[in-house]
Write a structure and sequence with these properties.
- The termini are far apart.
- The protein has about 130 residues and is mostly helical.
Length: about 130
């Protein structure tokens, strides 16, 4: 819904009130009735068509916003999934180096060229890594 003012404010009348009505979620019939009763509009066929068009416009704007929000959410989810997959793969590679080459976690991360600023996140998860015991 598009907010154009508060119904209890002193400036909420006339055009603002009418626009709020036209862009609201009310049915065409409700809008038609209010336009006739409160604004003294004579609802001709053309006025009914225009009111319907306004209803469709507000619904279209809402639908577009919802679709954009969905797309943004999906893209964020995809990026988070990729980041998690990369993290888990790197963790598995660290484990593989620890096991096969008998390296410490720090040595394995160094061998994988993990950037210094990322070391701590892997070290926090190093309790899941199996340490090599000779």
């Amino acid at each position: 819904m598009i907010g154009l003012g508060q119904p209890d404010s002193p400036r909420y009348d006339g055009l603002l009130k009418m626009l709020e009505l036209l862009l609201s979620k009310r049915t065409v019939e409700e809008k038609k009735h209010i336009l006739q009763e409160e604004f003294n509009f004579k609802m001709t066929e053309n006025m009914i068509k225009e009111t319907t068009d306004m209803c469709n416009l507000s619904q279209a704007i809402e639908d577009i916003g919802r679709e954009l929000g969905k797309r943004e959410g999906i893209n964020i989810g995809i990026e988070q999934g990729r980041a998690e997959a990369t993290f888990q793969t790197t963790l598995a590679n660290i484990q593989s180096l620890i096991t096969t080459l008998r390296l410490s976690a720090e040595q394995a991360m160094d061998a994988l060229n993990i950037p210094q600023e990322e070391l701590s996140q892997y070290l926090l998860n190093s309790n899941t890594l199996t340490r090599f015991t000779p």
